[in-house]
Amino acid sequence: MLRLLQLELQKLLLNRVSKILIFVSFILPFTVLILSSIKINFFGFFTLELGELGIFNFPIIWHITTFFASQFKFFFAIVVVSMIGNEYSNKTIKQNLIDGLSKKEFILSKFYTIVFFSLVATLLIALASFVIGMYYSSYNEAQIIFRETNFLLAYFVKLVGFFTLCLFFGMLVKRSAFALAFLFILYILEWIALGLMTWKSDFELAEKIQNFFPLKSMYKLIDQPFQRVMMTKFPDKAELAYDYAVHWYEIAIVLGWTTLFLFLSYRILKNRDL
What we know:
73% of the residues lie in helices and 3% in strands. The protein is mostly helical and 274 residues long. The protein has one domain (2-27, 72-119, 145-271). Helix 4 (60-70) packs parallel to helix 9 and helix 9 runs antiparallel to helix 12. The longest helix has 34 residues, at 103-136.
């Protein structure tokens, strides 16, 4: 595993564009640190400081930071599809196989890289969340601090699942731009399917079925936290209540898609004439 990971990291770090995109994908989530210190002056009447609103208290901070950081996954997605596109355009995939790398090892080297960068991204956002929380939170009990760290697991699974989907599209079309276009097409198709199911049945049932779709299931791992923040400010508003927790079956669905996309990527390479 380490040999395959080292081989892939050497390719990425020798590519200037990949290095920039990797750097950006790691740095942008840290803008949550800047967000926590923003002060908004309303025409001199009063100053609103986001960090003082309680949104960076434990345990809610794990929810907010992972949701915010996951919005920047597109940058590393470009790296993933570029990994495949460059292999085909530079003919290095054929050379690697000639040099003794099996097709299975080739796919695994890409997947190990995805897992590695997803793990690093998760550790970085965990560190940032902990630092911000310790500074702003009014709670210092370990039980409260680490209560909802399962959002970190959801964040990691979400990244691995999404990047493995990008790997599959990269293997399918062999071109970075087309692979990214397929992501957008899949997103549109999922919402078209929701519309058709709603037309044939009720919306609640259609939405439950949509939660099994690839992109929607990944999104559902970390639901939007804005409604939860409103709940803390207006606890008497029962209509604001919703299920924002991380559930084991949601993780299982994404892991199932991840396994399928990894298998399909291998099958495509195995059956393709290089």
